[in-house]
Amino acid sequence: MQRIESSDNKKLKRLISLKQKKVRLQENLFLIEGLKSVGEAVTESAKIDTILISDSFFNKNSDYCKILEEKSLPLYITSDNNFSKCSGSKTPQGIIASISKPEYLLQTIVAKKKPIVILDAINDPGNIGTIIRAADAFGFGGVLLLPGCADVYSPKTVQSTMGSILRIDSVEIETCDLDNIKNSGYSIYGMVLDGTDISDETFNNSIPAVVIGSESHGLNEKTLEKCNKLLRINMTGTAESLNAAVASGIVMHRVFEAFNRL
Questions:
Q1: CATH placement of domain 106-259
Q2: Fewest beta carbons within 10 Å, which of 8, 15, 78, 248?
Q3: Would you say 211 and 181 are in contact if contact means Cβ atoms under 8 Å apart?
Q4: In terms of Cα–Cα distance, which of 189, 192, 129 is closest to 159?
Q5: Is the dihedral of CA 217, 157, 253, 179 positive or negative?
Q6: Mean pLDDT of 226-248
Q7: What average pLDDT does the chain have?
Q8: How does pLDDT run across 132-159, given as a tens digit for each residue?
Q9: Residue 164 in contact with residue 136, Cβ under 8 Å?
């Protein structure tokens, strides 16, 4: 384990810079933070570039740190003050890692022949992270992001996935790619306010690909044109709509139940 003392240390500055999307793209790295998430990165054999811990974390978790050292992982320790500059959390847990971004492909996702969720201009990173976590929970084959979506690898998105970012393939796509998805045996279901009740849909004609739009704008017109069918979540209360992540969870659970009965 190497110690970083100076706030001008190149390794420290590099970790801090990964909060910026342009740097993540240049370095092909992203940050994952917290004991559970970093632990999953180790378990999942992610390509770990650096692990940084704070003095406070080491004092509370010295045995765990020794395990990391025994695995010959690139482990560094620094002051709590230096660590806080790298963290994206108001209350840092004291451990953060930079990880190589996986190279996911659309072809690989559709080849799984599992349900997928497609996000249309959802720009809240917390929502996207929660949706990725739900996709992991319900066994979806991947999460596809149309233009206008927040960065999958922003610290807030990654934190919201609670480690699921390491298990769910996530790929940015264009609207024209929806045709390729349909040609691969999928039916595209757009979630709207005035569609057919999703409870009545059997999803037994082909593999479902559900499209979720933002709460404020819904689905893009070009996206709607590519949908095979439009569905809605039936609501009896007075709320006009649901948060995108909440709606996605309901939809994915419904697809999970229907698809696994086939």
A1: 3.40.1280.10
A2: 8
A3: no
A4: 129
A5: positive
A6: 90
A7: 93
A8: 999 999 999 999 999 999 999 999 999 9
A9: yes
* Bridge partner list, 106: none
Report the CATH number of the 2-100 domain: 3.30.1330.30
For residues 122-138, one letter each, b for 16 or more C-beta atoms within 10 angstroms of the residue's C-beta and e for the rest, the string is bebbebbbbbbbbbbeb
Distances (CA, A) of 216 to 192, 241, 251: 12, 9, 18
d(CA 212, CA 190): 7
Contact 148, 120 (CB under 8 A): yes
For the chain, give every residue range classified as CATH 3.30.1330.30.
2-100
Average pLDDT over residues 36-63: 94
Q: How far apart are CA 260 and CA 68, in angstroms?
A: 39
pTM over 0.90: yes
CB 119 within 8 A of CB 215: no
